[in-house]
Amino acid sequence: MKCVIIDDEPLAVDLLQDFVKKVDTLELVSTFNNAIDAVSFINQNNIDLVFLDIQMPHFSGIDFLNTIEKKPLVIFTTAYSDYAVEGFNLGAVDYLVKPIPFHRFLKAVVRAQQVLQPVANTAIAENNNAPEIEQDFMFVRAEYENVKLNFADILFIEGLKDYVKIYTTDNKFTLTLISLIKLENLLSSKGFARIHRSYIINIKHVKSIQKNKVLISDKRIPISESYKNTFFEKINL
Fold it and tell me: I need a surface site. Which of 22, 33, 153, 213 has the fewest CB within 10 A?
């Protein structure tokens, strides 16, 4: 994973650089001592992961996330735990409180790798020179194995902070570490729709639609106002 460090504390940057060198799957592309200088760089380069401090002079890490166009994965690195909830609401992979021990840093990196994995698999399939075959499944990391899920068997997906529950037709669910945004990007062309901040549904399994709810299996799932128009347009309603 190509990564960038953004932190106004030189000692914190040095520590993170040392940690990155110890992890073979990380490639440090650049470091910045303020978030303003990093905006154009992130927008112009393909970066997978950003280690981002929150409290920085003039332009915070949260300001940075709300400004950039290209959204890499983010691991917050901060001396304060007060912003943890806001950080996860912004889609952060993890939230590390300084001083950061290496084992916690490594755990966060593994989480980021697991989030990227389905997207990476899709990219490999798209770049293959062999005749194109429509991919109708994905692999997700659950516990200590990669579980194959057929798109047709997925009923809906529920977001739980940095984890999701993927409910299937066998009345089971798979819990995996990935963001709803990543799954939305992966599944939007496969007959799925985001209808709520916390839900993605498989349209083919919808039994009925009320004004603000859809019925899938025996579950009534809310439709939020912010997603309603897009969803209704997608199903020509």
Answer: 22
